[in-house]
Design brief:
This protein is an alpha/beta fold. The protein has a domain at 2-181 and 222-247: Rossmann fold (3-Layer(aba) Sandwich). It contains 11 helices and 13 strands. A 7-stranded parallel beta sheet has the order 3-2-1-4-5-6-11, sandwiched between helices. Strands 7-10 form a two-stranded parallel ribbon. Strand 1 (2-6), helix 1 (11-22) and strand 2 (26-31) form a beta-alpha-beta unit. The radius of gyration is 19 Å and the shape is globular. The termini are far apart.
Length: 321
């Protein structure tokens, strides 16, 4: 089938494109290649997809709703995987308007394009575990209210879910929102802690550890994410609904364990400098996977003992260390 993937040069997006092509689908990738982090990494991700007659790439900003509408009309996709967004919790305090543009205006642009493209049978879009904030009782369930975001980034992702809910109700659009829990792995994002820690440890530089290291994260390896992504994209929800699923590892680990595993993979000790809790950060993430396990037989298979070593091996190879 024909599938549009936004954020195709991103971390999850590029992995998803490869998996969808391998599954026999045709993909139109869209990305604006912005400079939030080094765009050369994005270009290299696209290059890693390789030459494939079933893949085409368009450098386009999702906020350009006229161009997006034109691409949808010409390509007539049957599925849409919308992953493009301005990411990052802390950067949302430095550049708030970029989040409103990309995450709200951009999401609306995709919703309108889907609404006006009859061939689309299912829109799958990225949300975030950040929507749960600090007040949710662990493990975090999709049934929780999630109405107290503590960062602008989280607020925009929750707002995307509400926009999608309204469009499903008004226009009978099948949608699935995915709350990703700390996804990591090869070709990851340089603004993520595991990347920052790996770089610092290999260069014998100190790393900043916030809240004294008393944080827990539900780490999710990229291969586990992509496996279930393909199943969800290929599917069509019943009753024109806007479904929400957690995608996590469901094994929250202390930040200290994560740092120790990175240091082990790097073969060098971590030099830790401790700082207070950062504004906008959460103390713990923990995904309840009951719903996605029941509907898609999802199981997180790769723990950090394997996943971190895989990332560090990739990092060394990519930077020729």
């Amino acid at each position: 089938m024909r599938i549009i993937v936004t954020g195709a040069a991103g971390f999850i997006g590029s992995h998803a494109v490869k998996a969808l092509l391998q599954a026999g689908h045709s993909v139109l990738g869209i990305d604006n290649m912005n400079e939030y982090y080094d765009s050369r990494l994005k270009s290299d991700r696209l290059a890693s997809i390789g030459d494939n007659k079933d893949f085409r790439f368009e450098k386009t900003d999702i906020t350009d709703h006229r161009k997006i509408a034109e691409l949808f009309s010409n390509y007539a996709p049957e599925r849409v995987l919308h992953l493009a967004a301005q990411a990052g919790v802390r950067y949302s305090m430095e550049s708030p308007f970029s989040y409103i543009e990309s995450n709200l205006k951009g999401h609306l642009s995709i919703l309108e394009a889907v609404r006006n493209t009859p061939s689309v049978k299912h829109l799958v879009y990225a949300s975030s575990s950040s929507v749960y904030g600090n007040d949710t009782i662990a493990p975090f369930s999709e049934n929780d209210r999630a109405d107290k975001p503590i960062s602008l980034y989280a607020a925009t992702k929750r707002a995307d879910e509400l926009l999608s809910e309204s469009y499903s109700s008004l226009y009978k659009i099948n949608q699935t929102g995915l709350r990703f829990f700390t996804v990591y792995g090869p070709w990851g994002r340089p603004d993520m802690a595991y990347w920052i820690f790996t770089k610092a440890i290999l260069e014998s530089n100190p790393i900043k550890v916030f809240n004294g290291g008393n944080l827990e994260r539900d780490f999710t390896y990229i291969d586990d994410v992509v496996d279930v992504l393909v199943k969800i994209v290929e599917d069509i929800p019943k009753n024109n609904q806007n479904r929400i699923y957690n995608i996590g590892g469901s094994r929250p680990r202390p930040l200290r364990d994560f740092i120790e595993e990175i240091a082990l993979a790097c073969g060098k000790p971590a030099i830790c400098q401790y700082y207070p809790m950062q504004p906008g950060d959460v103390y713990r993430t923990y995904a309840d996977l009951t719903k996605i396990s029941k509907d898609y037989n999802y199981e997180a298979r790769v723990g950090i003992e394997i996943g971190i070593h895989s990332f560090v091996d990739w990092y060394r190879g990519y930077y020729k260390i």
